[in-house]
Design goal:
Blueprint lengths: L2 E7 L1 H4 L6 H12 L3 E8 L3 H14 L2 E5 L10 H9 L3 E3 L1 H14 L5 H4 L3 E3 L3 E3 L8 E6 L2 E6 L3 H19 L4 E10 L3 H7 L1 H5 L5 E8 L2 E10 L2 H19 L3 E4 L4 H12 L3 E5 L5 H7 L8 E6 L3 H8 L3 H7 L4 H15 L3 E7 L14 E7 L4 E7 L4 H21 L2
Parallel strand pairs: 1-2, 1-3, 3-8, 13-14, 13-15
Antiparallel strand pairs: 4-5, 6-7, 7-8, 9-11, 9-12, 10-11, 15-16, 16-17
Helix pairs in contact: 2-7, 3-4, 11-16
Length: 414
């Protein structure tokens, strides 16, 4: 079994000013190629601590991935410490220097001495040229142990790891095949989903692992198989998916890298339908989520954040009496919002949200977390009431997910 350690270096992470998203991402990537992460460590920018931690990991793991401490400032000491650990000397790497010069020229910036020193690398390492930044990655291989040092900037680290490190790891180690399939669901909680599939789960073929991965408004079911024959692994996993799908089909919106908004966008494009959105409690988050995707202009017409009752009346043509009689957070108003935005923007479908996001504004009849979502096309107008949480940020996200799922189900005819 090939095992790895992930070492994150940085005082800013230990102080809580920056979240360590790199370690989580690296663990997932390593696992996907058959490498188990047995330890994740975060340490400060201190030479003694870095040196001690590196030596312990070299003696107790096959692969060590280090992130951080490769920048041009005085507290970035990882490179010099690696030289001491491996008995190495810093030398200038021409490819790295050319890359740094190119980046600075493109940005119209002056190349300083500190930046030029970024091209100095230990003479005993394999240089991993960083196309998106000035700090190159480095790989050391001694006594059947591989240590890879990467910059801490997430997009630089991810690019280097995927483009250069994975192939390097596979060259050095004989790894098993791993096949994973993730079933993505929404509209049902983890415990309810577990109850529905418990018989199937108890009969899963030996050698296949099931993991529940819940997030806001969604639950992922990840099936994993490890072995020597990739075709057999795929066949086993796909067989399990066929067995469970009839039980949860109405909750499944996609697989693997599919996102709810992406799946909806593809359906809208295929059906040649357009949408517009009237948002109150979600404050534009629905529109932001939809338009984050390239190509969304093919189906998204526009939106209005109708936060005040005046905007609901003036822009969406909702009667004052209707709002006074039922309240802005109501079935009647949210349905009129969906109809109003559809007619105003001449879209095929109108969507709407109205609720009490919190933390204040609730009443005994309509407590914080009470939200209505609406849908309207040229044949039907409908709505759904949500009873959410007392946290504003969660309520905005959950409202968005639920409205997108209402749209998905409506497009499918469910």
């Amino acid at each position: 079994m090939i095992k790895s350690h992930i070492i994150t270096i940085g005082d800013e992470i230990l102080s809580g000013h920056i979240a360590d998203t790199n370690a989580k991402w690296l663990s997932e990537k390593l696992y996907s190629i058959g490498v188990n992460t047995s330890k994740r460590i975060t340490i400060s920018d201190d030479k003694k601590q870095i040196k001690k931690t590196l030596k312990l990991s070299i003696n107790n793991s096959n692969i060590i991935i280090v992130t951080g401490g490769l920048g041009p400032t005085n507290d970035d000491i990882t490179k010099k410490t690696l030289c001491e650990v491996y008995g190495s000397t810093l030398i200038e790497n021409k490819e790295s220097l050319d890359n740094i010069s190119k980046i600075f020229k493109k940005r119209g910036l002056e190349l300083t001495k500190k930046n030029i020193e970024q091209a100095l690398v230990p003479d005993k390492c394999k240089v991993l040229n960083n196309e998106f930044g000035t700090a190159p990655g480095m790989a050391f291989y001694e006594d059947n142990t591989l240590l890879i040092s990467l910059p801490g900037v997430p997009y630089e680290m991810k690019s280097l790891f995927e483009d250069k490190c994975i192939s390097h790891i596979k060259q050095k180690f004989n790894l098993p095949y791993i096949y994973q399939k993730t079933i993505k669901t929404t509209g049902i909680g983890e415990s309810w989903l577990s109850d529905i599939i418990k018989d199937w789960e108890n009969e899963i073929e030996e050698g296949i692992k099931l993991a529940y991965l819940p997030s806001l408004g969604r639950v992922k079911l990840r099936l994993t198989a490890k072995g020597e024959n990739i075709d057999e692994l795929k066949k086993k996993i796909e067989n399990q998916v066929k067995k469970v799908l009839p039980l949860i089909k109405k909750y499944v919106f996609g697989y693997d890298d599919d996102e709810l908004e992406d799946v909806i966008g593809k359906i809208l494009s295929k059906k040649n339908k357009t949408i517009s959105v009237a948002e109150s409690c979600s404050g534009g988050n629905v529109s932001k989520t939809i338009t984050a995707l390239p190509g969304s202009s093919n189906y998204f017409i526009g939106g209005i954040v109708a936060y005040s009752n005046e905007v609901k009346v003036d822009e969406l043509k909702i009667g004052k009496e209707l709002i006074e009689r039922n309240g802005a957070v109501s079935k009647e108003v949210v349905e009129k919002m969906a109809e109003g935005i559809r007619k105003k923007f001449k879209s095929d479908i109108g969507l709407s949200t109205s609720g009490i996001a919190g933390p204040s504004g609730g009443t005994p009849e309509k407590p914080v977390g009470t939200v209505w979502i609406g849908y309207s096309d040229n044949k039907v107008t409908k709505s759904k009431k949500l009873n959410l949480t007392e946290r504003r940020d969660l309520n905005i996200t959950l409202t968005t997910v639920n409205l997108l799922n209402l749209l998905r189900l409506s497009l499918k005819g469910d």
